[in-house]
Amino acid sequence: MRSCRWLASALLALLLFPQWSYAGDFMDTRLTFAIADNNLLAGPGETNPNSPSTGFNAGRRNTLFFDNYNTRFSGFETLSHAVLYKKMPSFFKNLTTAAALVVRMNYAADRSSRAFELTDAGSYIFMDYDLGSSKNIKRNFQVTAFPLSSTRFRLGYSFRISWGGDSTYPRRSVVSPAPGVKFQLNHDFNSKTGIYLFAGAKTVLLQKRIREYDDPNDKENSEFVERIEEETAYGVLGGFGLRVGDFRIEGGGAFFDKGTFSNPNVQGEPVYFYGFSGQMSYSYGMPIGVSIDFRLYKNDPQMPAKFFKPEKYEPGKFSFNVAAEASYLVNLLEDPDTFGGIVPSPGIAADINFRMKYGYFRMHADIVFRDLGFILRDVPGFVPFQAFSEKQKISPEFFAAVGVDYYIKGAHLTIGLKGGVQVPATFQGNIPEEVTGNQGSIPASLKGEQIVMVRDEGDFVLIPLVDQNGNAITVLPIVSAKANFKLQFSEFLSLVGEILFTLDNNDTRLTRDQITGIAFREFTQPIRFGFNMMLQARF
After folding, report:
1. pLDDT (0 to 100) of residue 117
2. Torsions phi, psi of 435, nearest 5?
3. How far apart, in Å, are the Cα atoms of 348 and each of 88, 372, 409?
4. Side-chain half-sphere CA neighbours of 99 within 13 A
5. Is the pTM of this model over 0.90?
6. CA distance 393 to 507
7. Using one digit for the tens of pLDDT, what is the confidence trace for 187-216?
8. Three-state DSSP class for 240?
9. Pick from 491, 438, 489, 447: which is nearest to 465 by CA?
10. For 104-108, which contacts have Cβ atoms below 8 Å and span 24 or more sequence positions?
11. How far apart are CA 238 and CA 252, in angstroms?
12. Contacts (Cβ under 8 Å, ≥6 apart) of 302
C-alpha cells in the first residue's frame, strides 16, 4: 500500500509538472474495446474456465493455450506506462548516465474496483562506460540498478519458461519489494563476433523462522527457541553470451534464498532454489526478438521507441530464425516420505521456436515441454514447500503449435490460422488438506486419490479416477485452433477478429445428484466455440 501511494504521488507530479520531463511521457499504451464470448455453446458456471455470456469484457479466458507465449499479458488489457526518463553524459569521460521512473497503470488488473492499478514496471538507474565502441562494434561496461522491482532481470529467453523474477520469492512471507542490480560487460571482437558477461544480485525482506538456543552460553542445558523475524534473503544471477555471425549461444545460472520452512516436520530449516538456462539460436535476415517484458523503457526523444510499429514486408525476401532453449531448476523441499528430510525437487523446461517470413507470408511454430516441477517452481511444489512423493504419479506438459498468416498490402489486412495440440501436465494421488483445505467440508465422493490436470500455477482441474460406470479415466490431449484477421486502420489503430475452437475432454465441474444429493464431478461439453472482436489502439 505504501509503495502504491508513492507511485501515485510520482504520477501526479508527472502530470502537474510536465516541464520536468520529455514530451510524450506515456508510452506502451494499449486501449482495447472488445466484444467476446469464449464459449458460445455453454453458459455461466458450465465450464472451467467460466464462460459468461457475450459481452464487452474479455481476458485471459478468451485465449488459447498457445497464445501470448512470449509475454505476461493476455492481449486484452487497457493499460499505459508513465515513463519519466533522463539521459545525460557524465562529468567523467566515456561515461553516460540514464534513469527512468516507470509506472504501469493497468485497468484490467483490478476490474472489481473499476479503477487503475498502479505498479512499478521496472524503474531503473543506468550507467554505461564506453570501452572503445564504434559504429558496428560494441564495447562497454554497464550497470543497471532496479530500486523497486527487478523482475525484468531474470533468466530464460522465452517469457513462458523464464524464471528468477519477483515471483520466485514466496508470497506468504514477502514483506518488501525485490530490488536488484546487474553488471554487464559487452565486447565485440569485430562486427560479426562478440561476447557478453553479466552478474547481479537481488535482495528481499522475508519473514524467516529463526531458531537459536535460549541460553547461548550454556548450550548443553539449553533448548531451541523459535521466533519469526524479518530477514534479508539474497539471490545471485550470472551468465554469458557468444555471437558468431548469425549464430548465438547463451547461458546463465542463479541461486536464491527463499526463506525458511513453516511445514512442521522441517520448520525453521532454510529453503534454497537454484537453476541453469541455456539457448542456441540462428537468424537469417531477421533479428532475434526479445520479449517486451524483458526490455527497459527508454523515453528518449532522440531515439523514439515504437513498441507496436507495423510489420515490414519486402516482396521476394526470405528470412527466418530458430532458437532452442532448456532450463533445469531445483527447489530443496520437504521429503514427504521421510520425517524431517529435505530433498532436491527438480524442474525441467525446454522449447524450440521457429519464425519464417517470405514476402507477405509468415509462419511460426513453438514446441514446448514443461514438467510439473517447473510449472509449480514458485509455489514451490504441488503441496507448498513439499517435494513429490514416490507414491504420487506425475506427468509433464507438452504442446506444439503452428501458425501462418498472409498480409494483403492494398487492404492493410492480415489473415491467419493457428492450431496446436497440448498434452497437459497431471498429478495423481491423495490430495492433502494443504491443497484442498478442511477435508471435513469436502464431499466423500471427492476424497481420496484423484487426478489433477495442472494448466498452470493455481489453475487446476480435478478429475476422478473412474467414471460413474467404473471405467478408468485417462487424461486426453487438448486440440485448439483459431482463425483470425487484423485490419490496420493506421499505425496504431486496428480491428482484430478471432474465431476460437477447442476440443477438451478433460474439463469437469462439481455438481450434485438431484436424487441422492451426493456431490460428484461430471465432464463438461468437450467442444468449445467462441470468438473475440477487438478495436485496439497501441502506441
Report:
1. 81
2. -100, -45
3. 43, 8, 43
4. 8
5. no
6. 19
7. 999 999 999 999 999 999 988 877 766 666
8. strand
9. 447
10. 104/79, 104/80, 105/11, 105/79, 105/80, 105/81, 106/77, 106/78, 106/79, 107/77, 107/78, 107/79, 108/59, 108/74, 108/76, 108/77, 108/78, 108/79
11. 5
12. none
Candidates 82, 97, 104; CA nearest to 22 is 82
Residue that is written with C-alpha cell 507477405 in the block: 360
Pairing verdict, β 361-370 and 26-37: unpaired
* pLDDT tens digits, one per residue of 450-459: 899 999 988 8
| Residue recorded with cell 488489457 | 77
- 16 φ, ψ (degrees, to nearest 5): -80, -25
pLDDT computed for residue 9 by the predictor: 53
3-state secondary structure string, 184-215?
EEEEECCCCEEEEEEEEEEEEEEEEEEEEECC
Annotate 412-476 with three-state secondary structure: CEEEEEEEEEEECEEEEEECCHHHHCCHHHCCHHHCCEEEEEEEECCEEEEECCECCCCCECCCC
Distance, CA of 443 to CA of 295 (rounded, Å): 48
| Banded pLDDT at 437 (limits 50, 70, 90) | low
The label of the residue with cell 507414491 reads 391
- Confidence bin at 79 (pLDDT 50/70/90): confident
Residue 81, SS3 per DSSP: strand
Q: Which among 310, 400, 401 is positioned nearest to 360, based on CA atoms?
A: 310
Query: What's the CA gap between 451 and 424, in Å, rounded?
Result: 12
CA distance 414 to 406: 6
Res 234 pLDDT > 90: yes
Q: Please say whether the beta carbons of 400 and 367 come within 8 A.
A: yes
Q: 525485490: which residue's cell?
A: 178
CA 319 → CA 162, 246, 290, 364, 408, distances in Å?
26, 12, 17, 12, 19
Task: Kindly state the cell numbers that stand for 403.
Answer: 501458425
Is residue 220 classed as helix, strand or coil in its secondary structure?
Answer: helix
Nearest 5°: the CA angle 441, 445, 448 is 85
Which three three-digit cell numbers place residue 165? Answer: 523474477
Q: Which residues of 396-411 are buried (b: 16+ CB within 10 A; e: fewer)?
A: bbbbbbbbebebeeee
SS3 label, residue 61:
helix
Segments forming the whole domain that contains residue 361: 2-538
3-state secondary structure at position 111: helix
Residues 348-363: tens digit of each pLDDT: 999 999 999 999 999 9
The CATH number of the domain holding residue 104 is 2.40.160
Number of domains in the chain: 1
